Amino acid sequence: MKSAVETLSPTRAKLTVEVPFEELKPSLDKAYQTIAQQINVPGFRRGKVPPMVIDRQVGRGAVLEQAINEVVPQKYVEALQSHDLQPLAQPEIEVTRMDDNETLEFTAEVDVRPEISVPDYSGLEAQVDDTEVSEDDVQEQIEALRERFGTLADVERTAADGDFVVIDLVATKDGAPVEGAEVTGMSYRVGRGGMLEGLDEALVGLGAGDSATFTSQLVGGDLVGEQVEVQVKVGQVQAQELPEFDDEFAQLASEFDTADELADDVRNRLGNGKRLEQAAAARDAVLEKLLERVEVPLPESIVTDELNQRREGIEQQLSYAGLTLDSYLEDEGQTEEEFEADLDRRVREAVAAQFVLDEIANDLELGVDQNELTQHMVMRAQQSGQDPPEFANHMFEHNHVPELVAEIRRGKALAQIVEGATVTDASGRVVDLKNLRPDGTLGDPAEAATGDSAAAEDDTTGDDTTEG
Known about the structure:
49% of the residues lie in helices and 20% in strands. By secondary structure, the chain is an alpha+beta fold.
């Protein structure tokens, strides 16, 4: 087999492959055998029909086509390997010449991984926001905790923002009830939003037994996005009564004896959470600085596929939340053009980051062990709300494990880059990422150093034992 490669662009290549007929012969023989099992020819047993008879009965062209369909994928892979090309998508293959008993020639155009010169990433500097826990943040969490232990009591007045109401809803289109757009006895908090546009405004001022009609758009079903008339009737108006935030409440709602201890714990937990958010922002900031140092050609087909997937994912999440893309953009004060431009920018940055981190992971010879893969699968399953064993089975059955391995390697590469970077907050303080624990607390550097030394000793002991 002979092959040549033509670079069409930094991310697309064209292979021209020439296959001598003798290399096609095993697949040709196999094609004859397969067809012989499929046809009935008087005077011959099934599977024993000679090639010459098959040529007369079926046609030589059909046999050649079957052989070519088997050979081309094999030779395409061999050509990729010989030219050290890494495909990113399915190729566009065209048989350009088929001379019976002489030569098969075909071309394959395919998007390929671009060649990237990894920049020096030592000494990267990045800045993130300060981590500040305000008293308003603490009070917000305390208020949410009080609401968990709150009780509802019927009130003899009209509904106001923040009240709970028990309502019946029915939607009609041209006077006819909309199938599936009817609820009875539903508890709803006025002002919560996320249901039907206009519902909160209609409920304010209604008392028990009152009803109102408003126009809205359905967010699900066959008539999603269409204007309908909605009638809402209030059965009960209830106010939430919250317990006092005192020592007795602290003992009821937590393991602490006093309200001050509980407030301090809330403050610490918020600080840990903000520290984790800051660490995530630090990784993003360092990666952004890295990408500023390198030019990454992007295959448009890959960008387009990723754009479509993300757009579908966003619309699906909005649908689950009872929103449409139009209503979301209106709430965000963003036009569709601005949304698309922002999405395109983020996708291009993400694809570029994948290529760069893959290259760095290769340079660092980073591997993934079974424990890391298992932990990553569990995390991904939890993020998507799936059962971990079912998620793992799906990944294996659909050959998605290489994608997970690539994700882990990129994460490890980025972690090493971030560890070597200097990240400061807006106040100029160095952000301690090395001693950050998974729960957001900071470990003692001395303990970390002792742990590293012990791990190193364990590794040395293990190596000696293996060699012995």
